[in-house]
């Protein structure tokens, strides 16, 4: 497995594979790899002859006060994991190589970036689409694989690739969860034991919404209330009643909900009822850690046809 630091070497490497007739898959990451990332590598290996991963903690997608400096960096461990997964090369450029003095060109992200994460993390997607486009320029691959854990990011990158005629197929991979439901994330390592327990409210809220849809609930407002109650640590009406008399009830909840919404799965626009494929998206803070998670909610075909 090659470890490449220079964009020119990376480009030559990809072109030499493609000249040999091999299809090339790319898995962009910021490192601190977990099973979620490795599952993306496996998808790429299924679809392509050769898989390259990138490891770069991209400063332009972090806002002021976010965890850029704290973000875990573990190159040796990550390289071992990727080698075992059969990756042919890692592209791990330095910050100076990606953003040398005088760098000033940024991509204006597509409209779908403006809502949700775009509102809570201004300029985040500007940094994401810029670095992803730069990675695509360094590694002109056939396919690139992104996790659906970052649902909006996946949609933003799809739109960018379409709008800018990138010619790389954007492939998505399932969310990978811990056995108790917590979506895998490099940021989970920031959580203390008690915070990790409370972090479970995100996946529980999504499961509660999914169960309600299974039981016939179609009103988005009601689904959002179910998620909000769960995030607050109040999963049932009994608990809600006890919250009125017990000031400590609900302390099992998250510390702050940025959003807990059900929106159109394609456009991320608000919905009144579930008459088309929708996605429940949550961003919440537990302690100082900001977590995101999501679940696609699909109404029955007959309901969609009757729309
Ligand atoms: O999802 C991530 O890890 C990052 O946002 C990405 C796509 C590698 C760009 O830095």
Short description:
This protein is of the alpha/beta class and 307 residues long. It is built from eleven helices and nine strands. The longest helix is centred in the middle third of the chain and has 22 residues, at 193-214.
Characterise this structure.
By secondary structure, the protein is of the alpha/beta class. It folds into two domains: 2-173, HUPs (Rossmann fold, 3-Layer(aba) Sandwich), CATH 3.40.50.620; 186-305, 2-Layer Sandwich (Pantoate--beta-alanine Ligase, Chain: A,domain 2). The protein is built from eleven helices and nine strands. It has helices spanning 7-19, 35-47, 75-84, 95-98, 117-120, 124-138, 151-163, 193-214, 220-231, 237-245, 301-305, and strands at residues 2-4, 24-29, 50-55, 89-91, 143-147, 169-173, 256-264, 278-286, 289-297. Strands 1-4-3-2-5-6 form a six-stranded parallel β-sheet, with helices on both faces. A three-stranded antiparallel β-sheet has the order 7-8-9, covered by helices on one side. Helix 6 (124-138) crosses helix 7 and helix 8 (193-214) packs antiparallel against helix 9. The chain is globular, with a radius of gyration of 21 Å. The N and C termini lie far apart (52 Å). The structure holds pantoate (PAF). Pantoate binds at residues 28-30, 58, 61, 128, 131-132, 150, 153.
